[in-house]
Design goal:
DUF4136, eight-stranded mixed β-sheet, signal, 218 residues, alpha+beta, DUF4136 domain-containing protein, two-stranded antiparallel sheet, 5 helices
Length: 218
């Protein structure tokens, strides 16, 4: 049964996710061609207010700023000077149980022999496995990051929210540390900021991606 143990360990490794990449889902939408003409931004909370008393938010905002700079956006000195307000929100779900059912090959012992036109053969035939379902359960966490850009001038006038672009970033794995995953999620989403992805896209980010390491050091 040693081979079954080895196969089970391999299966656990595969189902737990590749150790060398982080798989992220990105869904981006933009209002139109003119939605990216505004480049001067300020990062605000999901209530479109400046947040100065939250250290965790400040760390995430610094990383978002760096990613936006890479896309040609420029941070305003204060929200009053901004052309767009970029709402940053994030959350970590409660633990969720994921169940996978996989057909595992089993090589049984030699059974009774039966007659064929080619002679006597054991049943099951030697060298050919039968398959039995194996249930594998794991605990996963959903991490969600959302970046939504709105027209700052319109909002300042009468608090009307006019969306310009919106990026939803989701990670499902066994890591319950959003702070660890945040740079991976931003790197995955960077090419789609201010654009329309048409549908949800899965992006694989290498574990040692230089862009991730740079964001983590900020």
């Amino acid at each position: 049964m040693r081979w079954q143990m080895m196969f089970t360990l391999l299966l656990v490794g595969v189902l737990s996710g590749c150790a060398h990449t982080e798989n992220i889902q990105v869904s981006a939408i933009a209002a139109g061609d003119d939605s990216t003409q505004y480049k001067k931004f300020a990062i605000v909370s999901d209530k479109y207010q400046a947040t100065n008393d939250d250290l965790q938010f400040a760390e995430y905002a610094r990383q978002v700023t760096a990613v936006l700079n890479q896309q040609g956006y420029v941070q305003a000195q204060n929200s009053k000077d901004a052309q767009i307000l970029v709402s940053l929100s994030y959350r970590l779900s409660a633990p969720q149980t994921r169940t996978d059912i996989v057909n595992v090959p089993v090589y049984p012992n030699v059974g009774p022999f039966y007659d064929t036109r080619f002679g006597h053969h054991p049943y099951p035939i030697l060298g050919y496995p039968v398959y039995q379902p194996m249930v594998y359960q794991s605990i996963i966490y959903k991490k969600l990051v959302r970046l939504q850009a709105i027209d700052a001038a319109v909002y300042a006038k009468d608090k009307t929210v006019k969306p310009l672009w919106d990026v939803m970033i989701i990670s499902h794995n066994d890591n319950d540390d959003l702070r660890y995953m945040f740079p991976y999620m931003l790197v995955a989403a960077e090419p789609y900021i201010g654009r329309n992805s048409a549908h949800s896209i899965e992006v694989s980010v290498p574990e040692k991606d230089p862009a991730v390491m740079q964001l983590r050091g900020m």
